[in-house]
TrEMBL record:
Family: Belongs to the WrbA family.
Name of the featured protein: NAD(P)H:quinone oxidoreductase, type IV
GO cellular component entries: membrane
Stretches assigned to the Flavodoxin-like domain: 6-187
Amino acid sequence: MSCKPNVLVLFYGYGSIVELAKEIAKGVEEENGEVRIRRVRETLPAEMQSRLPLDKVKEIPEATLDDMKWADGYIMGSPTRFGNMAGGLKTFLDQTILLWKDNVMYGKPVGFFTEASTIHGGHETTILTMSTYAYHFGMIIVPLGYKIPEISQTVSGGGPYGATHLGSKEELDENERTIAKFLGKRVTEVARKIKCCQA
């Protein structure tokens, strides 16, 4: 068994969440992990979908349960929806009950990312509500702490819970990019240690 970990970056959304996912994937690659970026299928009604920038993610494959089986570690993201993950991600995760029964993800590391328009608009609560999923699967939640100085910045997204984007700014700033890459590296590092111990 190779000790090179497979890391799945799984997300819902179309805005800066996509850019966060790509920066996280760069961090996985810099830590010598194999990465897949996957989006979940849109579940909103057709009349609402017509208002979404679907072109922004059309080149990114939709996630499957096989992607979940493939991964040694996961990094999951969603824009905040009233302090919680978006329904599209929740719908996909609900399907993983088929994997829960077989302990497919038990003991595997997971990190989280999100974006919210305001400082107090759900950065922390969205990550915390996504993390409840991981408890039920027996996954290892990988927080960031304050290991890198960018996490202490108060004018950007990102914090000890995970990578985030402060959506009042259209583009990710350099702190947010650095934090996103660090999340990718951190989950990959933990996934490698676990995988190598089991080899």
